[in-house]
Design brief:
This protein has about 325 residues and is mainly α. The protein has 16 helices and no strands.
């Protein structure tokens, strides 16, 4: 796709649909949350389906936060931020830091330094000893959400690291203030749970659902950038219409891809048109295919089939571009 075609698609689809579909998902999630809490009161084996429902709600919260990051939930900036903060607080993800990091990821996709997600991964592999490599391989083959945990911890530390490096911008100050506010709210909530005697029960259920979310996050994210080439550190950022070079899409599964993953599998279209809400991605995917017919050839696997095949492979082979970049950092 060239710039002219990209501009034409941008003009055609940018404001072509209203945002009610996103609010329908929010209403569904509120209902599912109350359903899960009601089932939990039954106790016993009913706890299992309740945790699974909570995990689905948490996955939607992650995806809605992603929509808010791109200002795709609403045309209102304040409403986008409010939804982003609510979702972020509930799934342990600082929204403002995530937004900065993720928008840089889109601006510098495939760059080893400009993309914070790549930078965190390269840092992880830069200190890779033989012992650590064996540990990572065991974690990888056991399906533990290694990369999600690494990214989550990195997001909580990032604003403080930026301040330590001398970044005193108002953006970083707001991110740190938000993190303090999140922490205070967590403490207040925990004290309330202790007071009513629900702390241990709630934390066990919450952590189980959160772990499933981390697993699903990794399942949904890895196929889209793993094994994609990294551009040279001296290269300029790729324009949006060329980001198909460093992204992959996954095959759509009926119902699941649309309503569970909110079309997150159509990742190439998302990177070429990052402003687009989730429900516009199928149309944009079809537009992109007109200029990139090879895009259809890569849609041979969905997220689960990709993971089933690649969890059997050595992690260092799959993450080879990051390993090479980490090695060059050490030289």
């Amino acid at each position: 796709m060239d710039k002219k075609a990209w501009v034409r698609c941008n003009e055609k689809f940018r404001h072509s649909e209203v945002r009610w579909k996103t609010f329908a998902i929010i209403i569904f999630d509120v209902g599912a949350l109350f359903l899960a809490l009601s089932i939990l009161t039954l106790g016993g084996l009913y706890t299992v389906p309740a945790i699974l429902i909570l995990a689905i709600v948490f996955l939607h919260l992650y995806l809605l936060l992603h929509e808010a990051t791109h200002s795709a939930v609403s045309h209102s900036k304040n409403l986008n931020e409010m939804i982003g903060h609510i979702c972020g607080w509930m799934i342990l993800m600082p929204f403002l830091t995530r937004r900065r990091s993720h928008l840089l990821h889109h601006a510098w996709t495939g760059h080893p330094e400009g993309d914070p997600a790549n930078k965190r991964l390269i840092k992880l592999f830069s200190t890779l000893t033989k012992k650590k490599a064996k540990t990572l391989e065991r974690v990888w083959s056991s399906w533990m959400p290694l990369f999600t945990l690494n990214d989550r911890v990195g997001l909580w530390k990032d604003a403080f690291q930026e301040r330590k490096k001398g970044n005193q911008s108002s953006r970083i100050k707001k991110e740190i203030q938000a993190i303090y506010f999140y922490t205070a709210a967590y403490i207040l909530f925990a004290v309330t749970l202790l007071y009513v005697g629900w702390f241990v029960h709630f934390i066990s259920i919450y952590m189980a659902a959160l772990f499933i979310l981390f697993f699903l996050e990794e399942l949904a994210n890895l196929p889209h950038h793993a094994e994609s080439p990294l551009i040279d550190i001296s290269d300029n950022a790729l324009p949006y219409w060329e980001q198909d070079k460093v992204t992959h899409s996954c095959k759509s599964l009926p119902i699941l891809s649309k309503y569970l993953l909110l079309n997150f599998n159509l990742h190439t279209a998302h990177h070429i048109f990052p402003w687009a809400p989730w429900y516009s991605l199928p149309k944009l995917h079809e537009e992109v295919k007109k200029f990139l017919p090879e895009l259809e050839e890569e849609l041979t696997s969905h997220e689960m089939s990709w993971s089933l095949a690649n969890r059997k492979r050595p992690l260092c082979d799959i993450m080879a571009p990051y390993m090479v970049a980490a090695a060059s950092n050490q030289e």
